[in-house]
Amino acid sequence: MTAISLGIPTVPTRLAERRKSRQIQVGTVAVGGDAPVSVQSMTTTRTSDIGATLQQIAELTASGCQIVRVACPTQDDADALAVIARKSSIPVIADIHFQPKYVFAAIDAGCAAVRVNPGNIKQFDDKVKEIAKAASDARTPIRIGVNAGSLDARLLKKYGRATPEALVESALWEASLFEEHGFRDIKISVKHNDPVIMVEAYRQLAAQCDYPLHLGVTEAGPAFQGTIKSAVAFGALLSQGIGDTIRVSLSAPPAEEIKVGMQILESLNLRQRRLEIVSCPSCGRAQVDVYKLAEEVTAGLDGMTVPLRVAVMGCVVNGPGEAREADLGVASGNGKGQIFVKGEVIKTVPESKIVETLIEEALKIAEQMEKDGVASGEPSVAIAG
Ligand code: SF4
Question: Which residues form the IspG C-terminal domain (predicted)?
Answer without folding.
Answer: 276-361
